[in-house]
Give the backbone structure.
Amino acid sequence: MSIWLTYSLVSLGLWGMWGVFSKVATQHLGPQVAYLLGIFGYLPVFGILLYETGGKVPWHPVGWAAALAAGMSTGFALFFFFRALYSGAASVVVPLTSLYPVVTVLLSWLFLRESLTPRHLTGLVLAMAEVWLLSE
């Protein structure tokens, strides 16, 4: 099995667990505290990354800006995700928010000039149909 596939499958399983754990946390703690405590879950990964890079981070202004923007996007996405989970069903909120690749594909086409084939468009339509079917 390819390493990228192994990593993808582990990620898939962890994302699935994350959706359930997040719903349980918001039910018992509310969205603010659930997210606040969830941030501490990043600390072990932070340690691994520091170890792997030897604590060295190269300076590249565009790279830094993009990385910080990605982090802020993730941070605010999770902020709103926990609020959505608090008042909505995990079985609807998680699939809906998992449509983020649709946004990525469209923005990549628009700003990065990546190709958008009929096959891609079909995939986007099917992904949106999946969320509609799961939300009923």
In short: The mean pLDDT is 92. Helices lie at 3-39, 43-53, 61-87, 90-97, 100-111, 118-135.
